[in-house]
Amino acid sequence: MYYRLYKSRLKCLIRNYDMLFWSFAFPILLSLFFYMGFYNLSKDKAIETIPVAVVGDYTFSDDLLQVMERARASEDTPLFWLIKVNQMEAETLLQERQVEGIVYTDEETALVVNSNGYYQTIIKAFLDTYLQSKQTAKRAGSLNQSLQEDVSEIMADNRNYIIDGSGDNPNTTLIYFYTLIALACMFGSKYGFLEMRNIEANQSPVAARLQAAPVHKLKLLLCNLTASFTIHFLSILLLLLFLNKVLMIALGGEILRLMCVCLLGSICGVTLGAMVCVIVKANIKVRSAILYIVVLGGSFLSGMLIVDMKYFITNNIPLLGFINPSNLITDAFYSLYFYDGYDRYQLNLSILGVLTGIFIVITYLEIRRKDYASI
């Protein structure tokens, strides 16, 4: 009997295209927009060899040229590609953007660029450091002749002038995708809300017929909620698969722990919707509005639109973060990615489980003795 009710409810939910869109399609579409808008912000720009035109007395500037040739952007990549030309050729190369700048190496070193950009800043910073070190060496030599050294040796420590920071730095933009998954979990509240609406006899003709059916109301509700959870959890798994395999977002290697968060988050979302539907004594539109405020407001406070909002709540109103399911789900993902231990992860799951239990108890207490004078 239970399986037949469960199977019948699954068929009904599969035909509810509006619910399928919000649970399956919308989170995926939103993840695409997040990917285009946020994900590339975390990728460090690769350091490439910078073409630089050199004009002037190469003999006079031999030290500078040696230092520039030894400078490395990475272990296998030189920082500068020096092109020795005359002034007219250098200006032509600069106008055609074949070089990023012109270094004049006469008695006074000078730099000419035609724009202010990433590579121009590197060239200027390098030349400033070289000139300061050269001046320091000359002053040291004038004070004590034994300190006089070749300028190229003094600058030897700068050959690895740029350190490529594109290694295993934490990806802070993942917080947006964590909040997206949390929002998708909270979309389960629409299913819980729908099931409670369909079992309240005064809300629709379908609910009135179900109330008169020879099936215990709580048993029927449990079957319906289980079917809703099944559909919703499948949508969460599809979202995780899309993020990891299509968008290639590294959510972390703890796949089973991630799925545990999503599992509990989905149950919490469904039970939240059911609770809001039964405790708010108003018409359906008002109930729906309150549910949307709770879900979307919780997502905002968990850092979905402004990452700093999450940290503000954590530092100033920590209690609000502990009673916000979206924040708990986001923080559980966050702890798996940024922390080696599982204490914070387990704390978030424990609180989320307690909240889910509270939602279930409140819902049960509200509906167990609810009767209707006439339907």
UniProtKB/TrEMBL annotation:
Its main location: membrane. It is a multi-pass membrane protein. Signal peptide: none annotated. Keywords: Membrane, Transmembrane, Transmembrane helix. It comes from the Bacteria. GO terms for molecular function: ABC-type transporter activity. InterPro entries: ABC-2_transporter, ABC2_TM. It is found in: Membrane. The keyword Transmembrane helix applies. GO terms for cellular component: membrane. PANTHER family: DOXORUBICIN RESISTANCE ABC TRANSPORTER PERMEASE PROTEIN DRRC-RELATED (PTHR43027), TRANSPORT PERMEASE PROTEIN (PTHR43027:SF2). This is Uncharacterized protein.
